[in-house]
Amino acid sequence: MKKIFLPIFIILILFGCSNDKANSITEEIDSKNHSVEIVNVNDQVFEIIPTYSYYLDYISEQQSSDTNKDESFYDTVIAPISNEVYGNKFSLNGNIHFSTPRSISKLNEYINQLNEMHSEIIHILKEGLKDSTDILSGGDYKIYLIPYNPDESSLYMEGVAGFADKGNIVLQLDPYQFTKDSLKSILAHEYHHAVYMEFSDYNTRLHHLLDSVLMEGKADLFTKIIYPNYSVPWIEPLSPDTSEIVWNYIKENKYSYKIEDITNLHFGSGTDGLPQWSNYKMGYQVMESYLSQNPNMSVEDWTFLPAMDIVDGTEYSLK
Fold first, then answer.
1. In sequence order, what E strands does the chain have?
2. How many CB atoms are closer than 10 A to CB 227?
3. CB atoms near residue 202 (< 10 Å)
4. Cα-flanking dihedrals φ and ψ of residue 134, to 5°?
5. Is 141 helix (H, G, I), strand (E, B) or coil?
6. How far apart are CA 230 and CA 274, in angstroms?
7. pLDDT (tens digit, 0 to 9) for every residue of the chain, 319 residues total?
């Protein structure tokens, strides 16, 4: 690659302009109120917690020093949010939702946009929580809002990703891609996880591969019941031949606790013939099959039904 050298005074001018602009955006965001929003829905209490201030600390540090980005992001974002969610600073280290953003100016732009859309986001979340709690009661949960990493495309995820754990729901938002429908559907999926984790045996025993597959299938079936037009790539049906390959892999490893088996299903494995999101796709297919044979079972009943009992009630065999 050909190297291009600019006169040093031009570099200083360009850097100064960029830095001033970034600082002005940061000050504008800091001046707005993003305190915790308490939402009461169907006798359940939800705390909606923006985490943008942590990201602004990361941006500010990157503007004012040459600190390593990974180290800075861990110290200013990952560790404090992990402390809030898990009570320690280590649990979110390595989480795919918290990869280090390299494009500082674009991250600043994302936060500015999310800041401007904050009232709209809160309104959508309130609607989504009403939709979910109307058909499945749960506990009181915290919902953390984080910006999507601007270095990564969110198009396939329709602008929203998330996870649930320890009574918390974490939602990652791309202000340019998420829609009302995509935000409400991901919220429903993660809400179902939160309820399942709290009121099942999730916290009293290790969950093996089959448990994990059916857990995702349950969350997507729950979302589909609430939003019948819910259509996302990770629940698109597998072909009969691919279904057989995926199901055989699950049968062979059904009691596995190895992270690589979950990873192979989630991200796909050419070696094993597994497409991406095989765990979601197969889990959803099994749950569809079970519900078709048990149409009068309540959402609450099948939510907490053990994975083995569900499989036994379908055409899928573990033998």
1. 37-41, 44-50, 141-147, 160-165, 168-173
2. 15
3. 16
4. -65, -30
5. strand
6. 24
7. 433 333 333 333 333 343 444 444 554 554 454 689 999 999 999 999 999 999 999 999 998 888 899 999 999 999 999 999 999 999 999 999 999 999 999 999 999 999 999 999 999 999 999 999 999 999 999 999 999 999 999 998 999 999 999 899 999 999 999 999 999 999 999 999 999 999 999 988 989 999 999 999 999 999 999 999 999 999 999 999 999 999 999 999 999 999 999 999 999 999 999 999 999 999 999 999 999 999 999 999 999 999 999 999 898 978 7
Burial of 276 by CB count in 10 Å (0-12 exposed, 13-18 middle, 19+ buried)?
middle
Q: How far apart are CA 207 and CA 209, in angstroms?
A: 7
Bridge partners of residue 44, in order along the sequence: 41
Three-state SS for 159?
coil
Taking each helix axis from N to C terminus, what angle separates 209-226 and 278-293, rounded to the nearest 10 degrees? 70
